[in-house]
Design a protein that fits this description.
By secondary structure, this protein is mainly α. It contains four helices and no strands. The radius of gyration is 20 Å and the shape is elongated.
């Protein structure tokens, strides 16, 4: 058990190094992109709260598209939305990565 704990700690320290984290995050992003059409979409289709939130977003976006904004105002809003989406992607990637690490720790603690 002590040897496993040592290996777990060593693995964790390696994967949390800055360079390793960046490489792993990029790999996870690629993996998530390939898996999102199956696992994630299946979960989202079944999630009523997500579906309601998505419908509300689409209604709000339709209003945004139909309103008369100046080109400058529309550019500002579009940049804001794009930046928010990018931040959410980074957050989700980190949350997924944290979930993998936590899952690994839980499995290791069961031994």
């Amino acid at each position: 058990m002590i040897q496993q704990a040592k290996h777990t700690q060593e693995l964790f320290s390696i994967i949390t190094q800055h360079d390793s984290v960046q490489e792993i995050r990029e790999t996870i992003k690629i993996f998530m992109d390939s898996m999102k059409d199956t696992t994630l979409n299946t979960l989202l289709r079944k999630d009523q709260e997500y579906q309601a939130c998505q419908e509300e977003y689409l209604r709000a976006y339709e209003c945004y598209q139909n309103d008369s904004y100046s080109s400058s105002q529309r550019d500002t809003v579009d940049k804001l939305l794009a930046q928010k989406d990018e931040c959410h992607l980074e957050y989700i990637t980190n949350a997924y990565f944290a979930g993998l690490i936590d899952s690994y720790r839980m499995i290791q603690s069961m031994d």
